[in-house]
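Subject: Sanity check before I submit

Could someone independently write out the C-alpha cells for this chain? I want to compare against mine line by line before I put it in a report. The sequence has 169 residues.
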Amino acid sequence: MKFFTCLLPVLVLGLTGCAGYQLGGAKPQHLAGVTKIAIPGFTNQTLEPRLGPLVTNAVIKQIQADGSYQVVSRDEAEAVLEGIVTNVDRSQFRAVRNNVLRTSQLLVRLRTDYKLVSTADNTVLHRGRAWGESYIVLDPNFQLSEAQALEDAAQRMSLTMTSELSEGW
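---
Independent answer below. Compare away.
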C-alpha cells in the first residue's frame, strides 16, 4: 500500500506533462498581449460587387467562434485587422462528358492580404495572406451557384486567417 501512495504523485506528474499539451490559449508569442481587435470593412480590389462585406462578415463570425480575440469597436481595440480582397479566380473544375467546353463544376479561389496593426503605436503586429477555395456544381441559376461558391470560399479563407492569428499556423 505504501508503494502505491509513493507512486501516485509520480504518476500524476508524469501524465500531466505529456505530449506538450498546455492549459490556456496557444496564441503566437508576438500576439499574446492582444485580446481585443477591431475589424473594419475589408477593401475589395476585385471587380466582384459586394465581396468586401461578405469577406468581412465571414472573418468576424470565425474570430468570434474561435474565441481567441474579442471583436470590439476601434475605440476599445488593442489592434485593428485590416484586409484587402486582392483576387477572385474562377476556373472549370469538371466539364460535361460530351461537351468539354461546358462547365459542370466550378472552382472559385479567393485571396486576401491582411495585417494586424497595433492601435497604441500603429506598428504592424502580424501580416499575412489567406486563400480559400470552393468547388460547386453549377445549377441552372448560374448567379446563385456563383454566389454560394463565393460565400463558401470566404468562409474557408476566414478559417485559414483565424487559425493563423489565433494559433500561429
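---
OP: Matches mine. For the report I'm noting this point. The domain at 26-167 is CATH 3.30.160.150 (Double Stranded RNA Binding Domain).
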